[in-house]
């Protein structure tokens, strides 16, 4: 079975850990969602990591302090020489008061995602707005 439990975690800094899989490669991104985009649907600001560490079965990317908000992660897995991914692990991450809540991206509509963004921007985000995991 292919294990892909790639998630954002907050310790001293924000970390994005990606599972390495034998005989595959991956491409990833971590982005803050800021609103709507006429082409892609959602406007994203792609973040750059400060440090990467490869360890036993994973690669950990450190991003430093990340402000509260709505984020998206994507990890596409490819066979060694393939052009198209055989699997994509995509998550919506809500970072609030030093905690990160990871959800399957497809769980939410565009309208719901933009509702979270609006709540953060207006300063009205509350713990009660978080869906059950």
Compact summary:
10% of the residues lie in helices and 52% in strands. It is mainly β.
Radius of gyration: 15 Å
Q: Mean pLDDT, rounded to whole units?
A: 90
- Based on the structure given, which CATH architecture is correct? Sandwich
The assembly state of the depicted protein chains is single chain
How many strands, what sense, and barrel or not for the largest sheet? 5 strands, antiparallel
Strand segment tally: 9
Count up the helices.
Answer: 1
Strands of the biggest beta sheet: in what spatial order? 4-3-7-8-9
Distance between the termini: 23 Å
Number of domains: 1
Describe this structure in words.
10% of the residues lie in helices and 52% in strands. It is mainly beta and 133 residues long. The chain has a single domain (7-125), classed as Immunoglobulin-like (Sandwich). Strands 4-3-7-8-9 form a 5-stranded antiparallel sheet, with helices on one face. Strands 1-2-6-5 form a 4-stranded antiparallel sheet, with no helix packed on it. Strand 8 (87-96) and strand 9 (99-104) form a beta hairpin. The longest helix is centred in the last third of the chain and has 13 residues, at 110-122. The radius of gyration is 15 Å and the shape is globular. The two termini are 23 Å apart. The mean pLDDT is 90.
């Amino acid at each position: 079975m292919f294990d892909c439990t790639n998630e954002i975690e907050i310790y001293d800094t924000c970390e994005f850990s990606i599972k390495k899989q034998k005989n595959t490669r991956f491409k990833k991104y971590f982005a803050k969602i800021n609103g709507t985009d006429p082409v892609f649907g959602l406007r994203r600001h792609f973040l750059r990591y400060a440090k990467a560490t490869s360890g036993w079965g994973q690669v950990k990317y450190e991003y430093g302090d990340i402000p509260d908000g709505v984020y998206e992660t994507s990890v596409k897995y490819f066979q060694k020489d393939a052009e198209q991914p055989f699997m994509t692990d995509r998550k919506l991450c809500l970072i609030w008061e030093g905690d990160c809540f990871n959800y399957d991206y497809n769980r939410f509509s565009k309208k719901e995602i933009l509702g979270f963004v609006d709540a953060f921007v207006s300063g009205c985000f509350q713990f009660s707005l978080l869906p059950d995991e």
